[in-house]
Amino acid sequence: MPNFFNEMRADTDGGVREHYREFCRWLEQQPPETIERKRAEADLMFRRVGITFAVYGDDAGTERLIPFDIIPRIIPAGEWTQLQTGLVQRVKALNMFIHDIYHDQNIIKAGIIPAEQIYRNAQYRPEMQGISVASDIYAHIAGVDIVRAGAGEFYVLEDNLRVPSGVSYMLEDRKMMMRLFPELFARNKIAPVDHYPDLLLDNLRSVAPMGVDDPTIVVMTPGMYNSAYFEHAFLAQQMGVELVEGKDLFVADNSVYMRTTHGPRRVDVIYRRLDDDFLDPLAFRPDSALGVPGLLSVYRAGRVTLANAIGTGVADDKSIYPYVPDMIRFYLSEEPVLNNVPTYQCRKKEDLAFTLAHLPDLVVKEVHGAGGYGMLVGPASTKEQIEDFRKRLLARPDGYIAQPTLALSNCPTFVESGVAPRHIDLRPFVLSGKTISMVPGGLTRVALQEGSLVVNSSQGGGTKDTWILER
């Protein structure tokens, strides 16, 4: 039986960890009926605000409330400092890597990453070769998934650099906790996160095209049927900028314009929340009705900034993930502060053989997969599921990686049976512009099913408020 690190209680004697003591004292004083009433109140308020997540292929309906747990995940200041240092280092190296592969390709020439890993990657965009982007920043917004395992060490599980989502839930979870339990924030020194929209807006302003001092910024959404539409509308509203769809924009005179009631208005920075393929039907998918014809030509001319940049996805592909520690050493001449999870690349003959021999013990993931789909969690799978996955691996080994099943840390969580441990991860959001910045914390996701290691909202996971203590 794995020994799971408990975020609240020490493994040695079961005593409450120092940074949880104030919260535990408060929790023990609360009658169960008070907690239950507050939970119901939170659900009602989330529904009223419309904080939902669309689940594709869900026969029960297109919108689902993401379960919210009122026991926070608490991280002491010292641990956050280490995490923050490692995140800044990692995202800096990833941006340098993306710039390099679309320009000099030094990391390929040095033999650190095989050329075919780049050029055959579905997210590699040859259209970006040699194109300069503002401040050489490609991943303006990165969501880096962190897990704690073993004796309490932090690991990076994956890098989300295309259109990472979830920050609206981080902000709304905090707002909800402050509304329900103001006394907790009086008793604990908790670092604020509500300035994230201001930080994001400043970050987007800082990467405007050269010579633009007062940029017009928009959030571009695929539309109201997208799973994260609530977040798109929320962030636009919080930043005080327009939420647009592709049909609201057009290209003229080598610039992008937005249709308004006062006539066309030039757009300088587009925070886009749709994938590369749909951005420009003249350059990518000709059947896309979501994009802006001619957008790529304006982008290549440096007349508009896209956040995140086209072609960024090559660096968050799971087949590139194993090389990130080497990127840090290559570009920054530093040792990684945060470790990767050990990873077997099934395209390699010896790694495939090991994976096939140990399928019941491993987690196997599609290199382009996301949202918890297309993966095998060996210890939680039936013999039939394992054998089915074996066939998939043999048919297309280069489409998969494998990792040991981590003993993810757990945190006390309110479930139907009462308070019980459930596995969690953390997604901090790292902003890159003239500087690299982030708010203290992130989105803590929790696997609500007993024993489950899959925290994704699309797979029934919930969320918690994340407290970074300032003392």
Summarize the structure.
The protein is an alpha+beta fold and 471 residues long.
Question: What does this 3D model show about the protein?
Answer:
By secondary structure, the chain is of the alpha+beta class. It is 30% helix and 23% strand. About 1% of the residues have low confidence. The strands form six sheets. It has a five-stranded mixed sheet with strand order 3-23-22-19-18.
- The end-to-end distance, rounded to whole angstroms, is 35 Å
Shape: globular
The biggest beta sheet is recorded as: 5 strands, mixed
The strand order across the widest sheet is 3-23-22-19-18
What is the number of strand segments? 23
Summarize model confidence as the mean pLDDT.
Answer: 91
Tally of separate helices: 13
Helix/strand/pairing category: alpha+beta
Helicity level: 25-40%
Q: Low-confidence parts, pLDDT < 50 over ≥5 residues?
A: 55-61
How many domains make up the coordinates?
Answer: 2
Q: How big a fraction of the residues is strand? A: 15-25%
Cα gyration radius (Å): 22 Å
